[in-house]
Amino acid sequence: MTESNLALSSAQIELHRLRTFASSQVIGQEVLIERMLLALLADGHILVEGAPGLAKTRAINVLGKGVEGDFHRIQFTPDLLPADLTGTDIYRPQDGSFHFQQGPLFHNLVLADEINRSPAKVQSALLEAMGERQITVGSKTYPLPSLFLVMATQNPIEQEGTYPLPEAQLDRFLLYVRIGYPEARHEREILHLVQNESRGKAGGGGLLTDFEPIPQRVLFQARTEVLDLFMAEPLEEYLLQLVLATRKPGAYGEDLGRWLQYGASPRATIALDRCSRARAWLNGRDFVTPEDIQSIAYDVLRHRLILSYEAEAEGVSTDQFIHELIRRVAVP
């Protein structure tokens, strides 16, 4: 829903149409839907953590059907190899030449399902593609599509046999989103939605085929509008102070200084700026508010902060630290 009566641009109308469509297909996960759209508008990647069965795969699949482009799902397993993502050179015996066979990373939307199931070498191949928007095989470098979004998922329940992402690699993700179980009223809607889909499949039809995908040019237009959105200078200073406070938390309280070992990198500043602008734009406003910054701060900072042993001993979570930070840094 928009928060303003201002005339919406054609790109905003299209993104609202996509948001409505996604909300009708993924029930009870409004935050996840919004964060995926923010990542799309801010040209970044998203890491989603949640228990099995919470529609993580369905959400990115719906987004793939709502946007013009190719979608591919990669199930990360311990025996996966980097070439399974990037592709490899194939030898042609008939003429003695090599031909590059593109891997699944050459799609526009990529789901890296259970990314922590694969070893570091495979994770690094994905994260290099995310950061550089290209891959190198042998002596040749191949550019990835202009529209390229990775949504990686990980299961917080089972840790045995997994390879946790190092903090330095987590920093490559624009957002780190944690999702929970839907409310009781949404559970009934989910049940009815699945029942209707099953009836449609039994009749030879489906519910996800009647949405006109948004052209890529509209998304690129939307990104330009997001970058041009107005942010007042005091708000920009507030955004900077939030990030800088993670590097010198002791200035805002002895307890904060004791809880944090490492603060956020400049990537956090860039992500907070772009995502707060994208959130304001998505909600129909032509200006950023403090609430835009505060609401997205958790998902921007969560994976970029390293707590100290004292914080772990006292049972302090990263979200609790961010909550205290937002409470203590003065709002303009």
TrEMBL record:
Domain of life where this protein originates: Bacteria
Secreted is among the record's keywords: no
Stretches assigned to the ChlI/MoxR AAA lid domain: 260-324
Keywords: ATP-binding, Nucleotide-binding
SUPFAM superfamilies per UniProt: P-loop containing nucleoside triphosphate hydrolases
Molecular function terms from GO: ATP binding; ATP hydrolysis activity
Pfam family, one: AAA_3
ATPase AAA-3 domain mapped to chain residues: 45-175
Gene3D superfamilies reported in the protein's UniProt record: Magnesium chelatase subunit I, C-Terminal domain (1.10.8.80), P-loop containing nucleotide triphosphate hydrolases (3.40.50.300)
PANTHER family: MAGNESIUM-CHELATASE SUBUNIT CHLD (PTHR42759:SF1), MOXR FAMILY PROTEIN (PTHR42759)
Family membership: Belongs to the MoxR family.
UniProt name for this protein: AAA family ATPase
